[in-house]
Amino acid sequence: IDPSDPANVAGVRQPPANGNVVNPNATSPWPDGTKVSSEYGPRELFGRKFHGGIDGQVPQGTPIKATVDDATVLRAADTRGYGGLIVLQTRESDGSYTNHFFGHMSQLNVLEGSSVSTNDTIIGLSGGAKGTRGAGDSTGAHLHYEIRRNATPGNWNSGTAINPRLYNGRI
Questions:
Q1: What's the rounded Cα separation, in Å, for the pair 92 and 159?
Q2: Which pLDDT value is given to residue 133?
Q3: Of the ranges 50-54, 109-113, 117-121, the best mean pLDDT one
Q4: Both ends of the chain: CA-CA distance in Å?
Q5: How many H helices and E strands in the chain?
Q6: What was the pLDDT predicted at 135?
Q7: Which residues contact 33 (CB under 8 A, 6 or more apart)?
């Protein structure tokens, strides 16, 4: 996926019609029927002018599972902006690496260095309710889901943010 491609801009609210996503086997980061409260793209909030992920409006304490198979947990910690943060890293079929961010988690159930796969591990519980553990810079309960492509192996804070809908067709 080329980040300069017009399809990879704000306003893409569905996976590509041709089904051409990076990982067609990825699962949804939130339960079916979840409303998206904030899309990828320009947005001014907390002094930032761009939102690098998609926010799903899930209740505080919703169980969250890994969205990809054969992922390594690179980060599982409380951070300033993301609050409770879990970052998974996968190696793609083309040899590149992708980082998968799950932000504003109220509970972290995985350890850095562990391996996880879809549907076999609840990696944590969603959060985001202002003033609660793991909220970070948040205006309410939700899960922030972000994809960074071409990440450096083993480096949780690397890669280029892309519209998650172009990676995961189940959002």
A1: 13
A2: 81
A3: 109-113
A4: 17
A5: 0, 13
A6: 82
A7: none
